[in-house]
Design brief:
The complex is a heterotrimer of chains A (148), B (312) and C (341).
Chain A: E1 12-17, H1 21-30, E2 39-44, H2 52-60, E3 65-70, H3 81-98, E4 106-110, H4 116-133
Parallel strand pairs in A: 1-2, 1-3, 3-4
Helix pairs in contact in A: 1-4
Chain B: H1 2-15, E1 20-26, E2 33-38, E3 47-48, E4 69-73, H2 75-86, E5 95-99, H3 108-114, E6 122-126, E7 129-134, E8 137-142, H4 178-183, H5 188-201, H6 207-211, H7 236-249, H8 259-263, H9 271-285
Parallel strand pairs in B: 1-4, 4-5
Antiparallel strand pairs in B: 1-2, 1-3, 6-7, 7-8
Helix pairs in contact in B: 5-7
Chain C: E1 9-12, H1 16-26, E2 29-33, E3 40-43, H2 62-65, E4 69-78, E5 81-86, E6 95-99, H3 101-115, H4 122-130, E7 132-136, E8 162-167, E9 170-175, H5 178-184, H6 194-210, H7 220-225, H8 231-235, H9 244-247, E10 255-260, E11 263-268, H10 289-308, H11 318-322, H12 329-336
Parallel strand pairs in C: 2-6, 6-7, 7-8
Antiparallel strand pairs in C: 1-9, 2-3, 4-5, 4-11, 8-9, 10-11
The chains are: A alpha/beta (148), B alpha/beta (312), C alpha/beta (341).
Chain lengths: 148, 312, 341
């Protein structure tokens, strides 16, 4: 990872479901829990609304890793959006494997509105994993400006 | 077999059972065929059927205006038809599928590679043998040597989809997922390199999408303007995104007919992406595309007990 | 009598690698390389050579002068003042080696499109002015070739600076322009012997014999009167609506523009796509494959000849070879003879 200088910090895009994980992130914040500041949060109505192209586009436009987080099974505000998402993500993982994209680049979690601590833990893990992998590079647009 | 097919087609048209028979006729280049839209009983004389029929006909069904049509159907067409019916893209009673036994088709890519890309001036099938000739050379060998890899371990579709089921179909045996087994040894670096090369080669002509019997969205995501999901550049990442999203969109729907790879004018073959998703669908979710017209879609449905070991 | 600008010289097969290396030393040199679906024009690297057996490359010379996508200009706002940064053509090839006469002729057909005043396309013109085209005559035209019917010739010279004709043991090299002479002379090749000149003539005769037949491209008046003919309803039926034929056509040159990150891009576009004519309102004047295929054929064989006096087709046969559904332009044109009102 020659591009990974000592100062390099990964950029993580986190798609958080409005009803659970986003509230979980809020709780982590108001509880003053510490977690790495590498995450850019995108609030989505439901993890089931995350089209795989959002994930791929994030990697293309400069993210080093992506996290998608939704409600625990049974807690979905729309009853089963997260269960539909679960299948989609299982398939996406297989697809990314075929083209050599490391498993830890794209991760998934269930975080409820009451799990501020879990949110902080998940972020710490994802940031640590992606840091160990180094910059994404592969899907990203070579030499072009990425999101600031 | 061809005589029987012509006779059946002519009868269906003459009796008015169907307004159109969709099949193949001889093409203009050696070993090529081209789709035939037979509307009069006389047209049926031009129907041919042999391993050079390499284009999947089912993709045309959606744009036909005729009320009732007959589809000359190998297992590839029939599996695609199952999916089209399952997705309510085609009304089941509009299509009479004339099932034909199939022992695979010739891959022009495999043939070109076997002949070291020499120019073929003449080609014909003589029974199981293929005779090809060019400038000062001629070769003859069993055509099965240049059979499309997609044909290996062909799955027969649900017999219920046929109007006239094939009498005896003995598709090529083998393990359909053998291609994936071979790939499982590749390192991630090697896979990235391979995918990058394919993306650099891709000219975004979308022949793969257009040739696919199941890539028939009214508006493809590539054509979205607001938001534009693909950029205006020729960066390989644009082609990568296209092929990955196309694979996701075909998850649980791709019937592995190989039409995409055969259509590509610059030799990109990414069928392993579709195959990997098909295997995951089968192993993890017990889903097999192209078999059951009443099946639930793979993506968009769920079972409460779906495994989620990968979720934090 | 056509005057030969310079005497023909002979280049033996053994000398070819050295000639390519020498050319690459004088400036970036691109070579027609590869066979079949993986062939095209690529920058010279040691070991790369011409393949005499290979037909026309799958990817066309057009890509070198009109890349699949390129930046037209960059823009930004500095202290509230908008600023433009025009793009300069990068990676200019100085010599392109192994150009088939059909591909060179296609460039000559495109020149007026991009260079006719007052709208001169700087990127195209810059690349064109920089390049010396070293052609390779066709001794064995492919089964889909029909250049004579399209007004070309297997040893055609239009658009080329040098023409090489494959003969026994080497190539007859004939400079055609000042630029061609400047490329050929430093090579110090021996003059061709009379029997080599005769052999080149024989190559031409054999090739032309092979290319008898072809396709009726002279359809301007017929098409002009047959726009509404019912034949169009059936003609497009087998067409899948992909852009393989247009993107790999040496004369198709339509493009779209789009912005990203402060850059204005030009990118190939195809009349075979529904988005080609999609209006911002959502209306699309070309509603189906019928209108789109008609446009492609009308542009090549009616509108272009109306403006420029000849059809925008060089008979390279690529569209015939690559069409996934085997829609053969030659037989389509044959059928189109019937649309005359």
């Amino acid at each position: 990872m020659n591009a990974a200088s000592a100062t390099w910090e990964p950029k993580i895009v986190a798609f958080l479901c409005h009803w659970c994980s986003y509230a979980g992130a809020d709780l982590a914040g108001i509880s003053r829990l510490q977690y790495p500041p590498n995450v850019r949060v995108v609030r989505v109505p439901c993890s089931g609304a995350v089209n795989p192209i959002y994930i791929l586009k994030a990697l293309q436009r400069g993210a080093d890793g992506v996290l998608v987080s939704g409600c625990h099974p049974g807690d979905c505000h729309y009853l089963a959006g997260n269960l539909v998402a679960r299948r989609k993500f299982a398939l996406l993982k297989r697809l990314l494997e075929q083209v050599g994209i490391e498993e830890q680049r794209v991760q998934f979690s269930w975080v409820s509105a009451a799990e501020g601590q879990k949110f902080a833990d998940v972020i710490r893990k994802v940031v640590g994993d992606v840091k160990a992998l180094g910059p994404a590079g592969f899907l990203s647009k070579a030499g072009r400006a990425s999101c600031p | 077999m061809t005589a029987n097919l012509r006779e059946t087609a002519a009868r269906l048209l003459a009796e008015g059972t169907v307004q159109l028979v969709l099949g193949w006729e001889r093409g203009t280049s050696p070993l090529r065929t081209t789709p035939l839209f037979a509307r009069a009983p006389g047209d049926a004389e031009r129907l041919v059927y042999d391993p050079t029929c390499d284009h999947n006909l089912s993709g045309y069904l959606g744009r036909l205006k005729e009320g009732r049509v007959a589809l000359v159907a190998r297992p590839c067409e029939a599996r695609a038809l199952v999916e089209q019916v399952r997705e309510n893209r085609i009304a089941r009673d509009r299509v009479l599928a004339i099932g034909l036994p199939c022992s695979g088709m010739i891959s022009r890519r495999a043939l070109a590679s076997r002949l070291a890309d020499r120019v073929i001036r003449e080609g014909r099938l003589a029974g199981d043998r293929l005779v090809v000739a060019g400038d000062g050379w001629q070769e003859e060998f069993p055509w099965a040597e240049v059979r499309d890899p997609a044909c290996q371990g062909c799955r027969l579709p649900d017999p219920g989809i046929y109007w006239l089921a094939p009498e005896a179909s003995a598709p090529p045996e083998g393990d359909r997922f053998a291609r994936l087994e071979a790939r499982s040894l590749l390192s991630p670096e090697r896979r990235r390199e391979e995918f990058r090369q394919a993306a650099e080669r891709c000219i975004s002509c979308y022949a793969c999408r257009q040739a696919c019997p199941l890539c028939d969205c009214a508006e493809c995501f590539t054509d979205r303007a607001a938001p534009a999901l693909l950029g205006p550049t020729a960066d390989p990442s644009e082609a990568m995104l296209f092929h990955l999203v196309r694979a996701m969109h075909l998850a649980g729907r791709c019937v592995d007919c190989g039409a995409c790879a055969r259509a590509c004018p610059v030799g990109v073959d990414l069928r392993h992406l579709h195959l990997a998703l098909e295997r995951e669908g089968a192993e993890r979710f017990d889903h097999r595309p192209g078999v059951d017209p009443a099946a639930r879609p793979l993506v968009g449905s769920f079972r409460p007990e779906d495994r989620e070991e990968f979720i934090l | 009598m056509k005057e030969r600008p310079a005497m023909a010289v002979f280049l033996s097969c053994d000398q070819l690698p050295a000639v390519l290396a020498a050319s690459a030393e004088r400036g970036p040199t691109w070579v027609a390389a590869g066979r079949g679906e993986d062939s095209g024009f690529i920058p010279y690297r040691p070991g790369l050579c011409l393949d005499r057996e290979a037909g026309p490359t799958r990817r066309t010379l057009k890509e070198v002068f009109l890349p699949r996508a390129e930046v037209l200009f960059g823009y930004e706002t500095v202290d509230g003042v908008p600023r433009l940064h025009p793009a300069a053509p990068s990676d200019l090839p100085r010599v392109i080696f192994g150009v088939r006469p059909c591909d060179a002729r296609a460039l000559a057909l495109l020149d007026p499109v991009f260079e006719e005043p007052p709208h001169v396309d700087g990127l195209w013109a810059g690349r064109r002015q920089a390049a010396t085209l070293v052609g390779l005559g066709c001794d064995r035209p492919g089964p889909a070739c029909f250049c004579p019917a399209a007004g070309g010739d297997p040893l055609g010279e239009e658009g080329l600076d040098v023409l090489m004709v494959p003969v026994d043991g080497g190539y007859l090299v004939r400079p055609l322009t000042e630029r061609g002479r400047a490329w050929t002379e430093p090579l110090g090749l021996p003059p061709a012997r009379p029997e080599q000149l005769a052999a080149a003539e024989a190559v031409a005769d054999r090739a032309r014999e092979r290319l008898a037949g072809g396709a009726p491209v002279d359809l301007q008046a017929t098409l002009a009167s047959g726009f509404e003919h019912s034949l169009w309803d059936r003609l497009h039926e087998r067409c899948l609506g992909c852009a393989a034929c247009t993107y790999l056509c040496p004369t198709c040159h339509c493009f779209d523009v789009g912005d990203e990150d402060g850059r204005r891009w030009r990118r190939w576009d195809s009349c075979m796509f529904p988005t080609f004519t999609l209006h911002a309102s959502g209306h699309n004047p070309r509603t189906s494959g019928k209108e789109r295929m008609r446009q492609r054929l009308m542009h090549k064989f009616c509108y272009y000849p109306e403006r420029r006096g000849r059809p925008a087709c060089v008979g390279c046969g690529r569209c015939v070879e690559i069409c996934p559904a085997n829609v053969d332009l030659r037989s389509v044109l044959e059928q189109l003879k019937g649309v005359r009102a």
